[in-house]
Every structure is written in C-alpha cells, then in structure tokens.
Amino acid sequence: MFLTPVVPRGWVMLRGVALSSVIAFFSPAAFAQATSDEAAAAYEQGQRAFANGDFSAAAEFFETADRTLPAAQAIIQAIRAHRGMHSPAHDARAATLALTLLRRESNDPRITTYATRVVDDLSPQLARVTVQCDGCDLSLDAQSSGRDVFAEPGPHSLTAAWGLRVAHRSLELLAGSNNPIELVVPGETPSAPPTIIATPAEIMARTGVLPVDVELPPVMRGAPPTVDRPRPITHEPPSEGLPPAVFVTGAVVTAALAATLVWSGLDTLDGSTTYTQNPTQFALDDGRVRELRTNVLIGATAAAGLATLVIGAFYTRWHGAAVYAGASPAGILLGGRF
C-alpha cells in the first residue's frame, strides 16, 4: 500500500520555532519561488524517469512535485506512471490519487471526467476503504493513509491513532467491495445502565418472603426506638502547602525535558535536510516521526514548566525552608533544607 500525499506542515512549524531569526529575512515571494523551483525540478525528474520506462520512480517524483506545490497535472502524470506498472498495488495507488483529483478539482469537468474514468476502470479489481473517525491519524499496513483509499484485495491491518491512544482493525478485503469503517477513541465506553431496584412485590414473588420496609422509622417497624449518639466533631488542621521538595523535583523534570527537546529539535532539522536533499517517501515518513516526537516534547516541557511555576507560586510552603540554586557547566543544581 502506498502513502497518500501529505504536505509536511509540521516541518514548516518546527522550522519557524527553531530558525525564526533566519526565516525572518526571507520574503513570501522568495519562499514561493523556491517552492515552485523545487516542484518543477521534481516534475522534470519524473518526466525523465517516465521517458526511460522507470514508472515507479516517475510516480514518486510526480507525487513529490504535487506535495511541494499542488497541481492537477502532477497527479495525472503520477496516475499514468502507477498504471504503467501493471500491478495491483500501483493500481490501488492510481485509483486513490484519482479520488484526490475528484475532491480537489471538482470544478473542472475535464479533470473530473478523467478521474472518474480511472476509478471506474480500476475499482472492479480493487477494494475501497472509507474510514470515519474524529481527529485520528490513519495508517494501512503500517503506511500513512487517507480516509478514502483503494487497496488490493486480501488481508490488511488498519490503525487509527489519537495521540498516544491507538485502535487496530484487521480487514479482509474483496475485489469490487466498498468498506465503510467507523473507529472511536479507545477507552470510550458507553455509560453503565441504571441500577434496577426490585419492588417489595417482586421480592415476594421471587423469594416468598415479604421484605421489611427499611424506609419506615424503627418505631413504625415494631423495633424499639434508638437514639444515635452524636459523633464528636474533629477539626483537621488546615493544610500548610506542599514541601519545597515538590517544586525542586518539578524544576529538575522540566530541565530534563528541555534538554531532550533541544536534542529532538536538532535531530528533526537534520531529518528535514535529508528530505530536502533526497525527497523520498522513506525520508518523509522518518521526518514525520521525528516531528511528532518533538511536538510531544514541546507540549510536555511547557506543561511541566507551567505546573512547576504554579506549584512554586501558590502551593509551596516556603517559610522556614532554606532553598538554594546554582548553575555550572555540568548542569543546574537545586537544593535546600526542608
């Protein structure tokens, strides 16, 4: 199964965070020109590969050109290259790209006519999978996938991810079939049914014993009256706040996360450079994994830092505690007497 074209938006965001001082010197016109040149170069490489009969490489170059700068002609050429391979997997990719054309170029009758003809020609020997899920990232057979794709008949594995929560579904697809699938976030279970309380008549019918009406006062049930002794009132001392050790621990955790974030950001930028020099699907997938890791670390570091500041400002018992902090080339030192 092939990857659905996805514009690596997260890379642009990460570069904006890590290289904001450099990017500020580039104008929008210069950036647009660079993007156009990159797409044109990939399209030209696809044309050369297509002319040499290397349809697999041509399809990859054409899809790279479309991801860089979306263009209907690049997708049409990619469809032609995939169909030139004469294999079920490439046919499935061609039909999936035709669905992309139908969604993206719905106002152009010539393009929609061509895309419809491709879908009609290939769908009888393929299976269509339409997934409905809210805010999930999909993968089919461990390859990133869209929500409306074609696949070759046979067994497949569908995975949906909502951050760290993942749902798996095994599929057995038949040629010419249409498979609508709905996935939900794992752990979301329906609410428990209300508890059914049997009436005295039902208890009598089942057991033959008439239950005592416990809702009536003891005197009315025939039992001697009882007087409950008042419970002693205890006053718990008010909380004086958290010990400073909690704040110190939070600061250490935040510093560790920040150091890991710096390493991950540099590693992601290195993956971006690798993709720019060699725009292959493998490099794109590797870059997306690095990007996801860095984004998770950004959120974790920010959350840990904010929580540490709030705890230190409002919930820490500082009086009577000697706290000291220091920094050296070896790291940050926090300590105190609590």
What does this structure look like?
- The chain is of the alpha+beta class.
- It folds into 3 domains: 122 residues, Serine Threonine Protein Phosphatase 5, Tetratricopeptide repeat (Alpha Horseshoe); 62 residues, PapC, C-terminal domain (Immunoglobulin-like, Sandwich); 94 residues.
- It contains 10 helices and 9 strands.
- The strands form 3 sheets. It has a 4-stranded antiparallel beta sheet, with no helix packed on it. The chain has a 3-stranded mixed beta sheet with strand order 4-1-7.
- The two termini are 60 Å apart.
How are the elements arranged and paired?
Blueprint: H1 9-18, H2 20-23, H3 28-51, H4 55-68, H5 72-84, H6 88-104, H7 109-122, E1 127-132, E2 137-140, E3 143-145, E4 148-151, E5 154-162, E6 165-173, E7 178-182, H8 200-207, H9 244-277, H10 281-315, E8 322-328, E9 331-337
Parallel strand pairs: 1-7
Antiparallel strand pairs: 1-4, 2-3, 2-5, 5-6, 8-9
Helix pairs in contact: 1-9, 3-4, 4-5, 5-6, 6-7, 9-10
